Task: inverse folding
């Protein structure tokens, strides 16, 4: 019986494979004809071949086109994408799989998720040729991870409720959120569960020049106004879209995407804000090193940067990539002096400090 | 079942069960628990677990009480009364199990949140569902189906003759219920309370989405992994959960005592149950109807948002979300979900039955240990079950193992408890003389089991199959650490779409997933000629 059901499953999967193959052939024709032109540009050395498995924390809407473009540039590389828009889970997966790694590339998610893996010896260092165009603050010095996109932390507000309940006044600084009129109307992505929530909290520490006591005092006062710590950053956006709450610190690029969908929300960037550096890294033990390196190097090209800006509204770590329409450039907003390495190294300690401060 | 030495087949079956349980339940958990580091002690001395533990217990007591009460009313109505619309209610009794909690919890928020369509839109109230009250309400609806299935199975096997006899001796309907029906359904009730309590303890999705600042153990564990990368701390939380489950288990054993709950002895009678008063029938009908309205509203919201452009801000009708889910990898995901679910459910139901029989009818030493090990997976948050499997079976020498098979195995063993509990509860109601008659006539114990007991345990098999299937179809946390691009499943895709804020596509996917699951269960009910029914109650 065991053999039978296994056989059945195989047949099913074959059928599934056949259907997928037919679909792929239908869709692949234009790509195939376009391939020679772009590969000619990319193939300065011998063409790179190999199969890589990519753990991607990128948005669903970004994955297909982004890796499609990579396949065009490197037709010899087969890319299997494992999409999971939760960088923490991917990080845990890479840890638990260390006995026999199943990923070659970990892409997307703030560098805070990549850096600890590098320290644990689970990443393969690689200084990509194109990394020369990337500022030192956007990459790990020994090449354990390379930053290829940026995200700025801003503020989403529900138009209708903001004008009715708060006189349409958006916060000009993070301190404005301590006003009693915001009580019960604010939400925040959980600092414990989301990269964004943590970056928001670390931003406060840098705002007070690493005076942790002052920052915690701020977080405690803010806590009095917060109705909810939401387990995912996008989940918080949905609650503002629905008008369940009035405002929420969140990622500017994601807020823009929500706005363009026609939701009654708006974005602004309070002064002294923080930002993320989205990273890409190679998992140690990869059997297709050349192909993995090709993907890292390609991710920091201008073409890839332009495409990602178009797909996700995020910024690029390259200075020659223009931001999306309506999106601020890193140089346009007032940023705190965000010490990323310090924020990463002190994450556990600071989160525990925050937990005991607000009593969660 | 007498001597293990005299029956090699029996010994073999027992050894097989023990080996499987050790390899697929015990070993992965040991791998999780022995994560190196001093994190364990640091964590326990930190004391943050005290509050989440007490809050976990608080939620468990509240939600289990209401879920079991609701499950009992529902089961009683289905089995005892002749209220109308039973097939419809059978579907309602299983619907809450059929969708991933993170989608349903979002639907609750849309309806009952601070600006909920019902609470604010209709009643103008800004009550908040966040926190203890919200978790309590949502878990009651989410977990009553487990209680309902287990209790209905036991009630449907209760002996009508005992009740008729009581009535003939002058007892009123209430007295019969209190002194005959209720005491005899205790194994099912105990199993229902135990399983529901453990599932409530382990629940992550609902507290995470509507718990607000109310932290319970599973959300704390998730926070430790996701936020701190603190696996040792998180496993300490997981161990606490197991300890609580062990306490519940011991309490249940104590309560059951050495009583007999036999209701099936000799040839089953064709005597009808004494009629239930008309008033009671209609009260049950109204109660079930109210529950159905709540559940249908929540699920109706999913359907509406699946068919509109951008719910709730743009309500123009569209079918594009459904077009999307049939394209690309999504079709494969639905197909995988179906195959994994059916295969896992079939193996799980059979395995649960065999294990239940070996434990309940056996008298070999150490069977209590096996008994607990088979209930334990219910107390392991899916997250840890997944991490355990990813750690234990992701070794270079095991790379030949197909990931789809590994996912199926994880689903079989993670979902064993309900089917196992149903089998044990069922067996306790069947008089040992039944199978002993077979063995006295020369049949082996195995043959007695196969030819005598199994035909009488159809309900228990059904419970095992259905609950494993629905949990396999809706689990996210176990699969999230195991899936590959070729073995992705519907919940993974839904999770991805929710995180991408594509609520329309996410709900369309959920609706398709639920629809597929209902069709599959319906088809299986037909193929098995009703032996595996949609829901256990076949009055």
Result:
């Amino acid at each position: 019986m065991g053999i039978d059901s296994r056989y059945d499953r195989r047949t099913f999967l074959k059928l599934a494979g056949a259907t997928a193959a037919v679909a792929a052939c239908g869709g692949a024709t234009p790509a195939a004809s376009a391939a020679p032109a772009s590969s000619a540009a990319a193939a300065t050395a011998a063409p790179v071949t190999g199969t890589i498995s990519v753990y991607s924390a990128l948005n669903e809407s970004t994955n297909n086109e982004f890796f499609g473009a990579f396949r065009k540039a490197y037709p010899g590389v087969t890319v299997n994408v494992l999409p999971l828009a939760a960088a923490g889970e991917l990080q845990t997966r890479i840890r638990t799989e260390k006995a026999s790694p199943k990923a070659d590339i970990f892409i997307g998610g703030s560098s805070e998720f990549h850096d600890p893996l590098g320290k644990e010896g689970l990443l393969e260092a690689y200084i990509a040729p194109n990394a020369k165009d990337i500022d030192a603050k956007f990459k790990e010095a020994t090449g354990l991870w390379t930053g290829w996109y940026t995200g700025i932390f801003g503020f989403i507000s529900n138009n209708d409720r903001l004008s009715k309940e708060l006189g349409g006044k958006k916060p000009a600084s993070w301190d404005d959120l301590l006003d009693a009129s915001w009580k019960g109307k604010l939400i925040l992505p959980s600092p414990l569960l989301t990269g964004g929530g943590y970056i928001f909290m670390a931003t406060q520490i840098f705002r007070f020049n690493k005076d942790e006591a002052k920052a915690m005092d701020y977080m405690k006062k803010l806590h009095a106004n917060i109705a909810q710590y939401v387990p995912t950053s996008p989940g918080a956006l949905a609650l503002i879209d629905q008008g369940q709450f009035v405002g929420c610190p969140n990622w500017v690029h994601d807020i823009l995407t929500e706005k363009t969908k026609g939701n009654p929300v708006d974005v602004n960037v309070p002064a002294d804000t923080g930002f993320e550096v989205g990273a890409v890294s190679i998992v140690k033990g990869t059997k297709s090193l050349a192909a993995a390196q090709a993907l890292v190097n390609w991710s920091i090209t201008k073409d890839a940067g332009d495409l990602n800006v178009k797909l996700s509204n995020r910024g690029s770590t390259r200075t020659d990539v223009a931001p999306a329409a309506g999106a601020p450039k890193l140089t346009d907003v007032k940023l705190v002096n965000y010490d990323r390495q310090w924020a990463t190294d002190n994450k556990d300690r600071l989160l525990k400090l925050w937990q005991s401060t607000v009593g969660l | 079942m007498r001597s293990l030495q005299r029956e090699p087949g029996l010994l073999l079956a027992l050894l097989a069960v023990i080996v499987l349980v050790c390899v697929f339940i015990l070993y992965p958990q040991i791998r999780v628990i022995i994560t190196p580091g001093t994190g364990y002690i640091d964590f326990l001395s930190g004391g943050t677990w005290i509050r989440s533990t007490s809050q976990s217990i608080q939620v468990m007591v509240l939600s289990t009480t209401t879920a079991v009460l609701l499950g009992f009313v529902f089961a009683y109505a289905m089995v005892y009364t002749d209220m109308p619309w039973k097939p419809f209610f059978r579907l309602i009794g299983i619907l809450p199990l059929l969708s991933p909690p993170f989608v349903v919890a979002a639907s609750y928020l849309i309806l009952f949140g601070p600006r909920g369509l019902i609470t604010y839109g209709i009643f103008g109230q800004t009550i908040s569902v966040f926190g203890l009250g919200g978790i309590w309400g949502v878990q009651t609806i989410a977990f009553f189906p487990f209680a309902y299935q287990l209790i209905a199975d036991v009630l449907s096997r209760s002996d009508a003759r005992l009740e008729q006899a009581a009535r003939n001796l002058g007892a009123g309907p209430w007295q019969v219920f209190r002194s005959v029906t209720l005491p005899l359904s205790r194994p099912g009730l105990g199993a229902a309370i135990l399983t529901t309590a453990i599932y409530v303890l382990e629940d992550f999705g609902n507290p995470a989405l509507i718990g607000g600042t109310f932290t319970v153990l599973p959300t704390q564990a998730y926070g430790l992994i996701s936020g701190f990368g603190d696996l040792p701390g998180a496993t300490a939380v997981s161990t606490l959960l197991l300890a609580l489950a062990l306490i519940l288990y011991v309490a249940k054993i104590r309560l059951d005592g050495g009583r007999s709950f036999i209701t099936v002895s000799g040839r089953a009678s064709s005597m009808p149950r004494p009629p239930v008063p008309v008033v009671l029938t209609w009260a049950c009908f109204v109660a079930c109807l109210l529950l159905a309205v709540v559940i249908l509203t929540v699920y109706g919201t999913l359907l509406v948002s699946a068919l509109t452009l951008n719910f709730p801000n743009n309500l123009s009708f569209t079918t594009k979300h459904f077009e999307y889910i049939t394209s690309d990898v999504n079709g494969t995901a639905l197909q995988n979900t179906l195959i994994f679910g059916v295969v896992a459910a079939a193996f799980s139901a059979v395995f649960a039955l065999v294990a239940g029989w070996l434990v309940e009818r056996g008298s070999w030493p150490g069977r209590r240990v096996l008994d607990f090990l088979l209930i334990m997976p219910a107390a392991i948050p899916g997250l840890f079950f997944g991490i355990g499997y990813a750690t234990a079976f992701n070794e270079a020498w095991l790379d030949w193992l197909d990931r789809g098979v590994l996912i199926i195995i994880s689903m079989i063993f993670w979902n064993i408890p309900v089917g196992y509990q149903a089998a044990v509860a069922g067996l306790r109601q069947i008089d040992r003389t039944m199978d002993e008659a077979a063995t006295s006539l020369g049949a082996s114990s195995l043959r007695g089991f196969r030819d005598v007991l199994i035909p009488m345990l159809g309900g228990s098999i059904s419970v095992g199959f259905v609950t494993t299937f629905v949990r396999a179809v809706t689990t996210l946390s176990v699969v999230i650490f195991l899936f590959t691009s070729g073995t992705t499943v519907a919940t993974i895709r839904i999770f991805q779409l929710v995180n991408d804020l594509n609520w329309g596509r996410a709900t369309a996917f959920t609706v398709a997933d639920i629809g597929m699951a209902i069709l599959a269960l319906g088809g299986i009910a037909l193929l098995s000629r009703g032996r595996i029914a949609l829901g256990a109650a076949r009055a």
